[in-house]
Amino acid sequence: MSIPATQYGFVYTKASGLTLNKNIPVQQPGIGQLLLKIDAVGLCHSDLHVIYEGLDCGDNYVMGHEIAGTVADVGPEVDDWSVGDRVAAVGPNGCGNCSFCRGDAENVCKRAFGDWFGLGNDGGYQQYLIVQRPRNLVKIPDNVPSGIAAASTDAVLTPYHAIKMAKLTPASKVLIVGAGGLGANAVQIAKTFGAHVTVLDKKDKARAEALKFGADAALESLPAHTEAGSFDVCFDFVSVQATFDICQKYCQPRGIIVPVGLGAPKLTIDVADLDLREIKILGSFWGTTTDLEEVFELVSKGIVKPNVRSAKLEELPVYLEKLKKNEYEGRMVFHP
Ligand code: FEH
Ligand code: ZN
Ligand code: ZN
């Protein structure tokens, strides 16, 4: 595989936002590192939160946190990967040594904040990436195309981790608010746990897709006669006050609300109701290496089918604008 000396990529700085750099050196991997040729990288709302809404993950790095690639070169002391392996990056990029990383919770590794792939540390909006910690890579199944793999590293991994944290059972009555990219994948995942799934979404197309993915009901809003406290677990993929209030009203006593979306920086909680009915609010962030391995199992078996569209990486600025205006469905992935 001939590796160029320089490449192009999209670099984020607090001063200039996201800009194209056509002369980024392609480094050689050092001890314990590997060089990844980027095959596909997904575009996410979190990118918009960084570029336009002040989410501070750091300064001066190549963005792109939903990464699938092929190992192009390995440095000394890297023995768990070989040139030609197809791998996906586990975004939170845990340090590997702390109690969280050793406890299968590397997604909340405190040392990795600001070191996430494409969100503080260099990511996949370029042709080649030096991976400092190859432990944070997962093999992509042979039958999973790179675009689907890239999208799965967040649009499937994030809802999968949230659902796993909520410990669904076949007796679970689940409410999913927002059946866009992550919500649509959540429907498919929740059905693998045997749960009864009700979806709320304003868009006809999203409700139709949710029913196609196995939702038991897909509604624009809950009927007036719906009993307050009808659901064991409410996943809010929008997380604005109005959707959170719906979740709190219709969550069972001792039920769980998981505000997965980042629609509002803060939410108001009816604390008396929360206490009287012992409602749990569960934070959930991205996912772990184990989760991503399990996600690839589901995707490889065709049980979860993420909705993905592809474009050339050079077209990224065009699709950033489209995403801002919600002008497309599904996940955009880019190929350098
Ligand atoms: C979410 C919020 C902030 C940073 C990163 C994330 C991940 O789910 C990537 O989208
Ligand atoms: Zn993302
Ligand atoms: Zn750690």
Automatic annotation (TrEMBL):
<dbReference type="Pfam" id="PF08240">
    <property type="entry name" value="ADH_N"/>
</dbReference>
<dbReference type="InterPro" id="IPR020843">
    <property type="entry name" value="ER"/>
</dbReference>
<keyword id="KW-0479">Metal-binding</keyword>
<dbReference type="InterPro" id="IPR013154">
    <property type="entry name" value="ADH-like_N"/>
</dbReference>
<comment type="similarity">
    <text>Belongs to the zinc-containing alcohol dehydrogenase family.</text>
</comment>
<protein>
    <recommendedName>
        <fullName>Enoyl reductase (ER) domain-containing protein</fullName>
    </recommendedName>
</protein>
<dbReference type="InterPro" id="IPR011032">
    <property type="entry name" value="GroES-like_sf"/>
</dbReference>
<keyword id="KW-0560">Oxidoreductase</keyword>
<keyword id="KW-0862">Zinc</keyword>
<dbReference type="InterPro" id="IPR036291">
    <property type="entry name" value="NAD(P)-bd_dom_sf"/>
</dbReference>
<dbReference type="InterPro" id="IPR002328">
    <property type="entry name" value="ADH_Zn_CS"/>
</dbReference>
<dbReference type="InterPro" id="IPR013149">
    <property type="entry name" value="ADH-like_C"/>
</dbReference>
<feature type="domain" description="Enoyl reductase (ER)">
    <location>
        <begin position="14"/>
        <end position="334"/>
    </location>
</feature>
<dbReference type="Pfam" id="PF00107">
    <property type="entry name" value="ADH_zinc_N"/>
</dbReference>
